[in-house]
Fold:
Amino acid sequence: MINCIFSTQQLGLRSVAKAIGTPSSIIFLAFEYSFIIREKGVPGSKTPVTFEFTNNPGEEFDRLWFTGPDDSIIHTRGYDHFGDVWGDLDGTLFYDGDINLNVVTLDGAGGGTAIFTVAYGELSGTFEGRMTLKVRAGIVTGTYMGHGDGDFDGMHLRFKFTGALGGVPAIADGVIIN
Structure:
């Protein structure tokens, strides 16, 4: 008597058959078929996105103070920023964050909550999450990770970006994870 499991996987199709019997006479008890697919809209899929955004400071902040030699380091908390988003994602940005910046060297760091209200193809909604950034000689680099709402419910947006102080658009490269 033979008791074995046969399994094959080709072109994304997986089949499993359990069999019992003798080598000359095998009786199949069960078949299991499943498809392995990774594409846009399927759980676990990653859709690459590239876009640009502006992040212009508003006039509202919760706290502001100076430290360091000659008060050269500015600290803000709850500093609102607004911007536009274009490229693979199209829409607007709202950012409420903190920054510590040496106004002489233009070095610093910050982070906060960012909400992207965007469209991607026929999908529209928001991604709300956390943005972190570093500033070196006025060049801003950072990361973002947010969760989706609306048509993006259940999805995540992750990206890295590079820009510059002074209203220069940042260039973002990332993925929408379904």
Summary: Residues 2-35 form one domain. The longest strand covers residues 73-87. Residues 131 and 144 are 4 Å apart (CA to CA). The chain is about 0% helix and 75% strand.
